[in-house]
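To: structure subgroup
Subject: Chain for Friday's discussion

All,

I'm putting the inputs and outputs inline so they're searchable in the archive.
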Amino acid sequence: MDAETLSTIILLGSFLIMILMRFPIAYAVGISTVLCMISMGQNLVSLPQQMVKGVWSFSLMAVPFFITMGVLMGSGGISEKLIALANSLVGWMRGGLAQVNIVASYFFGGISGSAAADTASLGSILIPMMVDEGYDTDFSTAVTITSSCEGLLVPPSHNMVIYATTAGGVSVGALFMAGYLPGALLAIALMVGSYILAVKRNYPKGERFSIMNFVRQLGKSIWALLAVLIVVVGVVGGVFTATESAAIAVIYSLLVSVFVYKGLNWKGVWKGLDNCIETLAIVLILIAMSAAFGNCLTLLHVPAKAAALITSISSSPVVVILLLNLILLILGMIMDMAPIILIATPILLPVATSVGLHPIQFGIMVVLNCGIGLLTPPVGAVLFIGSAVAKRPMEKVVRATLPFYLCMLAALLLISFIPAISLWLPQLTGAL
């Protein structure tokens, strides 16, 4: 066994062992990197240099701003308004509250960018509301957690920024535009599944559709929706960068939450900022550690070896794309979202482009696969949050979620094999 192979085994083997032992992911990445560097005879002085290099990026400055924007808007009293807007739009359907849940997640996801925030905020309102109307608790929870993944695709999503930075040379604006149609496709797939179950179980439907009620609710929600418009139009139109747009959106969100919706006072603002710092600390230490980990991968030629291994299984693009999705889904079951993006992208992106996938399309695939992983045991953070909000055993929630997994996988396959779903809108707007 040559030295390079031994170092590769040490790097990946120690990392997987620590993941299975439930080490905190940042420690697992950092310790495996140190062990690998020692085995390669590298000076450990270069470790902090690689970590600083990983976070020394202007584009990454958008991440704390987007997280802050989501926290301010999410706790600023907009959840009820977005639920009312969704209800005026789709509440008339059979299983109307389930449809409202899904559509509200699409709206809210465009503001929070976080599946966990979506589940905690909307779930705490909609799950009890659905139960009171006669919906099964586990069904209500399953709808809530699966629809929350729409927020990972709908811009502005800080995970898209992380992918763009990791992939290198990928436009954040193009990624933002690319997320709208896949997010809508996921919402439609979940709505179809919810409708079938609602008809089968004879769940209730709400009041008849009224254009006047819809316009009235749209007027109440417009201040929240404008935050997304500022970011997307500003970035795609070239008015300002993603980082600048995120900073402007934070100021806008602060003013709307405090002075327009009045859902936050200054004490609440400071509490929200405290939550932001805690979340950001986790994200940035992961990015820093993953930069050093990625440097080891590059020195050991792991991306090239992974590409050769996957393509040796089959030369068919269809099979390779299915294998890429399978790898990402398995990783999603044992790792959180940000580490997967940071670690898997440098390895799998060359394979994806070799079979004709555009980096933008592959980014959407990565994010959706990671979203599904958030709903699967043993590390499904959103699954745990949903179970906690609904006060239901996790295994029962998983059982109720099985039909929705099929809906999400159907959407994933369409996105994987129909490039236009991801690329049409960026091409239309000139972002790509």
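Points worth raising on Friday:
DSSP finds 22 helices and no strands in the chain.
The longest helix spans residues 266-299.

D.
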